[in-house]
From TrEMBL:
Coiled-coil region list: none
PANTHER family given in the database record: OS05G0533301 PROTEIN (PTHR33377:SF115), OS10G0134700 PROTEIN-RELATED (PTHR33377)
UniProt cross-references to InterPro entries, sorted A to Z: NB-ARC, P-loop_NTPase
Name of the protein in its database record: NB-ARC domain-containing protein
Domain NB-ARC: 212-350
Domain of life: Eukaryota
Pfam families: NB-ARC
Length: 499
């Protein structure tokens, strides 16, 4: 009788726990779905405001800061929304590893509770290291906090929207969202305003306090972070073009053998304003690395005859050049994770609605996480994805990206670096199951469009087997669609695997 009573009590306890757990799970699911819907509507409102603000010249510093806060919150909200959906997709057991028998293969057992003990923890069919960045983010608490903070911010945007209508438009371009991202510089609003303020300053130069005659702004950042593109967009601003009578760009990357007499002859005339009220020069010097003090002083001293109000910008990967500045240097860094995800998602999905492709979104999030903020890899990967817009195609790209990272870690003998562009890399034909040859990629060099030769072989030709060159050759990695329209060319070598 005691054994029977214990069994009955045990069964009642198990059923009670199962009932409570099931009820809690249902209530949580409903709450999460409601928060997802609320966040989606909030992002539509904030996105519309951000889109309008990006098309206007905002003169008020307070309004600009408010706009930047809303834009960052919109990026973060979009990331949380997609990450939460990604968790849900992973919860249905969507497999990224096997797409042979169709695009809708789902392992329903992934989140199914144990038949014998419903309180058991669920298990995932994935490697935790591959999806941890999603599982550790966008929890129900994160989702609720994002909804609350975005709602609070939008309540305070009524005056901003009213004053925004009075701001003059910057441009009107008939691009959809993904075309806008492809053909215009993404982000960098605060950085641009800071440089604009430096260039348009009409008072005594900062350099006067140091006994110098010309203001110099150093801009530093990793390779291919967009320093030249950033400066180009600053120079194209109508306020800058009307302020300076002449804009010169030196893009030979090294000043070592440069003479003071021939320096200007080696500069490219970017803009000339014959109607300027007074003569002012802007000289942009693009360097790859550092320059010795003697060379710099010789060049700097030779420009002492420049008219009052003239300015100089110097860009480089090396942080050592900040010593030449007469004002605080500007450091360009990778976009925040949330902004980079927004950028890559627009490129990868194009005009397609990501909400209609939750499985693809989860794969794209992992890709974005692996690319570590690289603009170049975002464009290359998105071109591959758009050319194969289906589960099978994206699975192929993601699988090869994982292998690409692993191969290059072993090649470098260390953890894969944040700066992906300063090290030799190894890739292969994506269409082959077995790799019988590898393509070794060496230093990538930007070439100005129309000024230098561009190879006929593209990166897509190599990856899809459309070209099979041997020995050493040049490959067009990526052709930028925004000024200064660089063609990124890489020296490549085909290496045959030993059988």
């Amino acid at each position: 009788m005691e054994m029977f009573s214990s069994a009955v009590v045990g069964e009642l306890v198990n059923r009670s726990v199962s009932f409570l757990f099931s009820k809690f799970e249902k209530e949580t699911t409903v709450t999460v779905q409601e928060d997802l819907q609320r966040l989606r509507h909030l992002l539509l409102r904030s996105g519309a405001i951000v889109w309008d603000a990006e098309q206007r010249y905002i003169q008020s510093k307070a309004m600009l800061l408010q706009f930047m806060d809303l834009r960052d919150k919109t990026f973060m909200g979009s990331y949380v929304l997609d990450a939460a959906r990604c968790r849900a997709t992973i919860g249905t057991g969507v497999s990224h590893r096997n797409g042979k028998d169709g695009d809708n293969e789902v392992d329903r057992r992934a989140f199914t509770l144990s038949r014998f003990n419903p309180a058991k923890r669920v298990r995932f069919p994935y490697n935790a290291s591959e999806i941890g960045f999603v599982l550790n983010f966008a929890s129900p608490v994160d989702l609720q906090e994002m909804v609350s903070s975005l709602e609070f911010m939008l309540r305070d945007m009524k005056e901003f929207v009213m004053f925004l209508a009075s701001c003059p438009p910057l441009y009107r371009q008939p691009y959809s969202a993904h075309m806008f991202v492809e053909k215009c510089m993404f982000g960098r609003h605060m950085e641009k305003e800071r440089v604009m303020k430096f260039l348009l300053q009409t008072g005594p130069p900062h350099s006067a306090e140091k006994g110098k005659h010309l203001d110099v702004l150093p801009i530093v950042g990793p390779a291919y972070i967009g320093k030249s593109t950033f400066v180009e967009h600053v120079c194209q601003d109508e306020r800058i073009r009307s302020h300076f009578s002449l804009i010169l760009v030196y893009s030979r990357n090294c000043l070592k053998d440069e003479t003071a007499a021939g320096f200007r002859d080696n500069c490219l005339i970017k803009h000339q304003n014959d109607n300027a009220l007074e003569e002012k020069l802007l000289i942009v010097i693009e360097l790859s690395w550092d320059v010795d003090d003697e060379t710099w002083e010789r060049l700097y001293s030779s420009e002492r005859s420049m008219p009052h109000g003239s300015k100089m910008i110097i860009t480089s990967r090396s942080k050592e050049i900040v010593r030449f500045g007469t004002t605080q240097a500007l450091s360009l860094k990778c976009l925040p994770t949330e902004a980079y995800w927004y950028f890559f998602k627009r490129l990868a999905f194009g005009s397609d609605d990501p909400e209609q492709h939750p499985k693809l979104v989860s794969m794209a999030m992992e890709m974005a996480h692996k690319m570590k903020g690289s603009f170049m890899y975002a464009h290359i990967a998105s071109a591959l994805l758009r050319a194969n817009f289906n589960i099978r195609g994206w699975t192929m790209v993601l699988t090869n990206m994982r292998e690409f990272m692993q191969k290059n870690v072993s090649l470098l003998g260390e953890e894969y670096p944040d700066d992906l562009n300063d090290h030799p890399q190894c890739t292969w034909n994506l269409t082959k199951q077995k790799h019988d040859e590898y393509f070794m990629l060496y230093e990538i060099c930007p070439r100005r469009s129309g000024a230098e030769d561009v190879p006929d072989i593209t990166m897509m030709d190599l990856l899809f087997g459309c070209a099979q060159p041997r020995g050493k050759y040049e490959v067009l990695i990526w052709k930028s669609q925004i000024p200064p329209y660089f063609n990124y060319v890489c020296t490549c070598e085909t290496v045959i695997c030993e059988q």
